[in-house]
Design goal:
single chain, mainly alpha, two-stranded antiparallel sheet, globular, disordered N terminus
């Protein structure tokens, strides 16, 4: 009986030990696969699976699942997806743009996984800045600035890899303003709700994404 109880927990601990390496390998393979013309189309098709893997590993490491945390996840997903739908159809929020096919299945011309991407990005920025001994409004501002740093790297390569396309290939300033405002409101909610904000994968994942987009930007 003792063996039956300890083996699953040991297996789980072992799997968690190697999960960060799996995620790092996935990002490294993604860089190479997207940069090589021979494999670019295949890796674009794999983009949704990579995002699902990223989210699965990230939230596996979250400490303190609760109703409030699930509520936050639903709100972040819904707001992120909703603002993108409004943005694509009006051109008034982020500017005029459209999504390509790399993120997979679309509803209202926006990939459903974009809502998940908003949740993942807001969450990791929020966890990274959570230890700061500042008011919620100040931490939300710093965390939103971290996301703007990522977005600055994403935008120039988005069309190359069929992520999204800007009208006339021009990235408007309002995109960054809207990104910051949307992220700020979600992060403020993240800090005001009674949540656990500990996840040792948050900072490594932010660094992986930073290196991922820097690599694409430098070598495209």
């Amino acid at each position: 009986m003792l063996m039956q109880r300890t083996i699953p927990s040991e297996s789980l601990a072992s799997a968690k030990r190697y999960a960060p390496l799996l995620l790092a390998a996935s990002y490294a393979a993604g860089v190479v696969g997207l940069l090589l013309p021979q494999s670019r189309q295949l890796f674009q098709l794999l983009t949704p699976f990579h995002l699902l893997l990223t989210a699965s590993i990230l939230f596996w490491f979250h400490k303190g699942w609760s109703r409030q945390f699930i509520l936050f996840c639903l709100v972040a997903f819904g707001v992120g997806y909703g603002v993108e739908v409004a943005g694509v159809h009006t051109g008034k929020i982020f500017g005029e743009y459209r999504y390509g096919g790399a993120f997979g299945f679309k509803i209202f011309e926006v990939p459903l996984l974009i809502g998940l991407n908003w949740l993942v990005l807001v969450y990791i920025a929020g966890v990274i800045c959570a230890p700061l001994k500042w008011p919620a409004w100040a931490r939300a501002g710093i965390a939103a600035a971290l996301l703007i740093g990522l977005d600055v790297l994403m935008e120039p390569v988005s069309g190359t890899f069929d992520f999204w396309y800007w009208a006339n290939d021009k990235i408007p300033l309002q995109n960054f303003v809207a990104w910051f405002a949307t992220a700020y409101l979600l992060l403020l909610l993240f800090y005001l709700l009674p949540l656990q904000r500990q996840n040792r994968m948050a900072l490594p994942l932010y660094i992986m994404q930073l290196l991922f987009f820097v690599s694409l930007l430098l070598f495209t």
